[in-house]
Amino acid sequence: MKACLKIGLSAVAAFLLIFAAACSPKEEVKKVKLAEVTRSVFYTPQYVALAKGYFKDEGLDVELKTTWGGDKTMTALLSDAADIALVGSETSIYVYAQGASDPIINFAQLTQTDGTFLVSREKKEQFEWNQLKGSTFLGQRKGGMPQMVGEFVLKKHEIEPHKDLELIQNIDFANIANSFASGTGDYVQLFEPTASVFEKEGKGYIVASFGEESGQVPYTTFMAKESYIKKNEETVEKFVRALYKAQQWVEKNSGEEIAKVVQPYFEDSDLETLAIVIERYKNQGSFAEKMTLTKDGWENLQNIMEEAGELPEKVDYAKLVNTEIVERVMKE
């Protein structure tokens, strides 16, 4: 009789546990629409966060869309086609200068150097920057960070971009590599993995890094409308927490291991090339492990913009940068 009673009580207890689990409210999965300015190995920590499920661990369903260009990315953010954008910090300054009532706030930094490389059509046994004088240089889109950093570095080496060489800036971002491959220009400014692929195929040769030459700058950051951050601060914090975890994982692992994780986002690139590119970015300190956009970095950004004649107005750091969320996450 006692045995039957025990079995009966156990069954009731099991039923109550199942009932409680079924009736307990599940944590709501929050969807986040993320727009990236381009698809690049430069953004490796972002793909690590996606591939390793760090966003899902935080209860986020992140939908990634590549918008191909700073203007298109900002349009997506302003029109609510995207909740969060990964793009150059200069775009937030452009929007602010146009009198936006809902400013775009930089809340987490992904990369802290330029991500482009100078590629020569001819192999150089010993490269000197003055070799660009008199050449045709296929640069990046006018007004974007790659173009501004490119001109900043040229001037640093006493090359006047609009006088000492033929500077081409009227080719759409997505077509720059193809234009060089088809014969346009003696030199070109390219992101990875395109630069390394060109070198492997004999289409060009990497001779210098704009990231090493320009120093630290908030090159690509995650940003959102001020109103979105206020209404969804918990979501943004979860988003940052997943990214911070990815940044730490990238810092601790080899290029080979990281390449295996992110390869699904670069199906046209082989593992060997991806590993080389990731190590190159790691070695020059491109990935912002701490993710905090500093005042010094913000000032360097505006100095580069001013030097390029693209700064519409000086904007105070506190107006367009929010570091509170990143700092909270890093203290955990």
TrEMBL record:
The keyword DNA-binding does not apply. The lineage of its organism: Bacteria, Bacillati, Bacillota, Bacilli, Bacillales. Residues 44-253 form the SsuA/THI5-like domain. It comes from the Bacteria. One of its GO terms (cellular component) is periplasmic space. It is found in: Periplasm. Its main location: periplasm. Transmembrane segments: none annotated. InterPro entries: SsuA/THI5. Residues 1-20 form the signal peptide. This is ABC transporter substrate-binding protein. The gene is ytlA. PROSITE patterns: PROKAR_LIPOPROTEIN.
